[in-house]
Design the sequence.
């Protein structure tokens, strides 16, 4: 059998990871400023992560959601404490798209409506409803296009007001920081005005923190730069540091009932052990502070590079704009300088999503490699 060939790949096969570095079969060491697409939060093969996941696997890898699982309770408590959202409720699933699917479902249950407001350049995943609100018609099949959605310009409040006034909206969904779109940040004023309008019109506000959460932005959630309380928050990627896990945080106003949501694998023992170990490490190693410190340093240094046209982002979620398409530059960085970076929807943008335990020395090495690649 052959693989269904949907991913363009670099001809490199990482076989080992350690902190911010990955190694290929021949032992070549690569600096990872991509984090496997914002997934690696506490670094590759962190000892606490390895220990907790392996011990859990040796004890009990999986049992269904029909029995008590105190690991889920521990995860909810630790996540509540670290994010400051103790009064929210946690539903666990397996990926980002599935998290958004459940978030949209809860909003539609609550309002009885189907139309969704999303934003231009948004990416919310590839399952049916999530892809229908993703601002990329090329990846939507006709079967996905089953409910009405509207994409509004980011940071313009008037169109949001006009859309909500019509009264047929099931939810407004927005990324804490737009990731694949090219690292665009909803302003504090905009987020606060959207939240206020959602409250006025009784429309659930969903914050997609799948990429921008887990401390990456320099706060646990990127929306926490604004003074808002979203109704639902979707999470995935960095919460498992590579173990597939997603979830939604629901404000106390949502009442659960048996069977309302469900999944076979969501909240399984291994996933919980992985996510708990990630929260432990983020807290004990002060990784949110580190994301802020290293992120600020990188942004300041990047702005001094003459060929860099713009730098955007918060913490360790950074977009760098050039006045040329960056495909060749990114390949050169990997092949000649052993440095992984990310792309974005905008062909001129390089996206940086390093592990949150990146050091000052790693940041300097990254800058050195980037400058060298730009000079030659
Ligand atoms: C903001 C955002 N939402 C949702 C998703 C979908 O997550 P997953 O690929 O885990 O389904 C992604 C993935 O890149 C994302 O960046």
Sequence:
């Amino acid at each position: 059998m052959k693989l269904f060939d949907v991913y363009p790949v670099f001809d490199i096969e990482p076989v080992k990871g350690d902190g911010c570095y990955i190694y290929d079969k021949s032992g070549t060491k690569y600096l990872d400023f991509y984090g496997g697409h914002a997934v690696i939060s506490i670094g590759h093969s962190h000892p606490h992560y390895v220990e907790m996941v392996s011990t859990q696997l040796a004890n009990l890898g999986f049992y269904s959601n029909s029995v008590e699982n105190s690991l889920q309770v521990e995860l909810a408590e630790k996540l509540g404490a670290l994010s400051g959202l103790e009064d929210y409720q946690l539903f666990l699933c397996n990926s980002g798209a599935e998290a958004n699917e459940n978030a949209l479902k809860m909003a539609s249950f609550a309002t009885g409506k189907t139309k969704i407001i999303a934003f231009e350049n948004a990416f919310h995943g590839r399952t049916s409803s999530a892809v229908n609100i993703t601002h990329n018609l090329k990846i939507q099949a006709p079967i996905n296009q089953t409910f009405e959605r509207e994409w509004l310009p980011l940071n313009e409040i008037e169109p949001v007001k006009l859309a909500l006034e019509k009264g047929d909206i099931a939810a407004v969904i927005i990324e804490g920081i737009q990731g694949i779109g090219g690292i665009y940040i909803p302003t504090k004023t905009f987020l606060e005005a959207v939240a206020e309008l959602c409250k006025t019109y009784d429309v659930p506000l969903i914050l997609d923190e799948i990429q921008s959460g887990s401390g990456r932005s320099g706060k646990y959630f990127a929306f926490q730069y604004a003074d808002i309380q979203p109704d639902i928050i979707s999470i995935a990627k960095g919460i498992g540091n590579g173990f597939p896990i997603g979830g939604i945080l629901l404000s106390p106003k949502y009442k659960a009932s048996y069977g309302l949501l469900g999944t076979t694998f969501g909240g399984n023992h291994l996933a919980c052990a992985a996510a708990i170990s990630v929260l432990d490490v983020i807290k004990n190693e002060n990784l949110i502070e580190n994301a802020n410190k290293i992120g600020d340093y990188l942004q300041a240094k990047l702005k001094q590079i003459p060929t860099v046209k713009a730098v955007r982002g918060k913490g360790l979620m950074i977009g760098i704009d050039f006045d040329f398409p960056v495909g060749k530059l990114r390949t050169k960085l990997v092949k000649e300088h052993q440095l992984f970076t990310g792309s974005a929807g905008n062909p001129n943008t390089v996206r940086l999503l390093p592990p949150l335990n990146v050091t000052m020395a790693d940041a300097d090495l990254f800058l050195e490699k980037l400058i060298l690649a730009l000079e030659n």
About this structure: Residues 96-111 form the longest helix (16 residues).
